[in-house]
Design a protein that fits this description.
- The protein is an alpha/beta fold and 484 residues long.
- It has 2 domains: 2-169, 3-Layer(aba) Sandwich (Rossmann fold); 174-412 and 431-483, Dihydrodipicolinate Reductase, domain 2.
- The chain is 35% helix and 22% strand.
- It has a 9-stranded mixed sheet, sandwiched between helices. Strands 3-2-1-4-5-6 form a 6-stranded parallel sheet.
- Helix 5 packs parallel to helix 6 and helix 9 packs across helix 14 (432-451).
- The protein is globular.
Length: 484
């Protein structure tokens, strides 16, 4: 199969940090179709050779086994071409069309790795130039809009140029091997399904923590914030994967139908639960890994009196038969105590205690997403250190490390998703109604913050966020894993 992958924003940060490395790994693993071209598009005045040299320079920053050797890169570079374009000029789309017409590939992928404000214009210009052919697929990065209205406007423009089956709204978390194993855990094993319900599960916690700050993205983060950047997409997609009903099959729409039901079942926000169940924070100066770091307001591109959140913790419920009454907690933020993403399923204690167990200790299933990838099952077993007390139980842990079991060279998130786009598989991409429902649910939080005089609560960099996040979960009698 022949393909052309057109990368709008081909010299940008996302292109060289994620997309090009993902494409190279697919090439290295022999998964990328042999008859292909990767066409970078940007306003830079570059020749094909200069573009290849630029990408090679960027690849020199890649560490370890993923860095290509000169022979590997030379073969990969044979796929790379460049077209100089101003995305607002119709004539430049005609020039791109002439490049694509040189061989009329079986599949054409248009990856729009630009600022979201350009999504609509780019799709309209692609259509006006007649490049939205039946064999064309369009890939859109997050965030798709900044609220429900802008998301609907972008989706309406995209639908005017492409059918839904041609649109791939990417959320790279869905491509992570650990998230794939989450689906396999739930729907490939009979062991957990009878337990996956309100009668046996006390609460579920989703943590996506980063120890980095906003780095050089201060201006971007000022207009985005953590709720838009992480909760509306990544965190809610994880919640859907945990909470959805088993789909009738593994087809894309069957999976996305079930995720949509979860989003529609989330408890609606009211002024009362917004004040009690949502916490926003902003990191102040502190230390991460023993190194002093500045506060958010001292970062380049950030207003000195910024009210942008860098941390969010919230409590919600899925109001359906399976999950009624089970709280779901989400927390995510920057400059926290470590880089850690995991889902913790906390089971209810045994209904009748005939053994002596440590207070507050119950069974837990921890699904580790990053940097560790695997499963932990926390159980209670009889200890052997006190033979006089045979009724005493102690915590034990079963630990499955997927990297050790399957090897470190597994398919990465962007590698998997890019191959899925080329092959036309929509399973791991977000449908427009899913996305709109997620925006509908988070928008009351954004509206509430507009009138909330308190603003984000400060927390020292290198901690786990503001104390209000701990107080929120403590009101239900629970605690975050590092505090229990």
């Amino acid at each position: 199969m022949s393909f052309d992958l057109v990368l709008f924003g081909g010299t940008g940060d996302l292109a060289w940090r994620k997309l090009m490395p993902g494409l190279f790994q697919a090439f290295r693993h022999g998964k990328l179709p042999a008859d292909g071209r990767i066409i970078g598009v940007a306003r830079d005045d570059l020749t094909d050779a200069q573009y290849r040299s630029l990408i090679e320079t960027r690849f020199e920053a890649v560490e370890g086994a993923k860095r290509p050797n000169p022979d590997e890169f030379a073969r990969f570079a044979g796929l790379l071409q460049f077209v100089r374009m101003d995305l607002s000029k119709p004539a430049d789309y005609a020039r791109l069309g002439a490049r694509l017409a040189e061989r009329n590939a079986d599949t054409v992928v248009m990856y729009v790795a630009t600022a979201p404000a350009l999504f609509g214009t780019t799709c309209e210009q692609i259509a006006a130039a007649g490049l939205n052919k039946p064999n064309t697929r369009i890939v859109l990065e997050k965030p798709l809009g900044h609220d429900l209205a802008s998301n609907r406007a972008i989706n309406a423009t995209v639908r005017g140029a492409f059918s839904e089956r041609q649109v791939f709204r990417i959320d790279h978390y869905l491509g992570k091997p650990s998230v794939q194993n989450l689906f396999a855990l739930r729907f490939g094993n009979a062991l957990f399904e009878p337990l996956w319900r309100r009668e046996t599960i006390a609460n579920i916690q989703i943590t996506i923590a980063e120890d980095l700050g906003v780095e050089k993205r201060g201006a971007f983060y000022e207009t985005t914030g953590t709720l838009r950047d992480m909760v509306q997409n990544h965190a809610l997609q994880l919640l859907c994967a945990i909470g959805m009903e088993p789909p009738i099959n593994a087809h894309a729409d069957a999976i996305r139908d079930e995720k949509l039901k979860v989003l529609r079942s989330l408890t609606p926000w009211t002024p009362q639960n917004l004040s009690q169940h949502v916490v926003r924070g902003q990191y102040a100066a502190g230390a991460v890994g023993g190194v002093a770091v500045p506060g958010y307001r001292a970062e380049p591109g950030v207003s000195p009196d910024s009210r942008t959140e860098t941390f969010v913790a919230l409590r919600t419920e899925i109001a359906n038969w399976r999950w009624a009454g089970v709280p779901f907690y989400i927390r995510t933020g920057k400059r926290l105590a470590g880089r850690d993403a995991h889902i913790e399923v906390n089971f209810r204690p045994a209904p009748h205690a005939i053994f002596t167990a440590p207070p507050g200790v119950a069974n837990r299933l921890v699904i580790n997403l990053q940097p560790k990838d695997g499963l932990e099952l926390h159980l209670l077993a009889q200890g052997q250190d006190d033979r006089r007390n045979t009724q005493s139980l102690a915590p034990v842990q079963l630990d499955l490390d997927f990297d050790s079991r399957f090897g470190l060279e597994r398919v990465g998130a962007y590698e998997r998703l890019l191959l899925d786009v080329i092959d036309g598989r929509l399973n791991l991409f977000v449908r427009s109604d899913e996305q709109e429902e997620a925006w509908r649910w988070v928008e009351p939080i954004l509206d509430f913050w507009q009138t909330d005089a308190q603003g984000p609560r400060p927390y020292a960099a290198g901690t786990w966020g503001p104390s209000a996040a701990s107080a929120m979960i403590a009101r239900d009698g629970y605690c975050w894993s590092e505090e229990c």
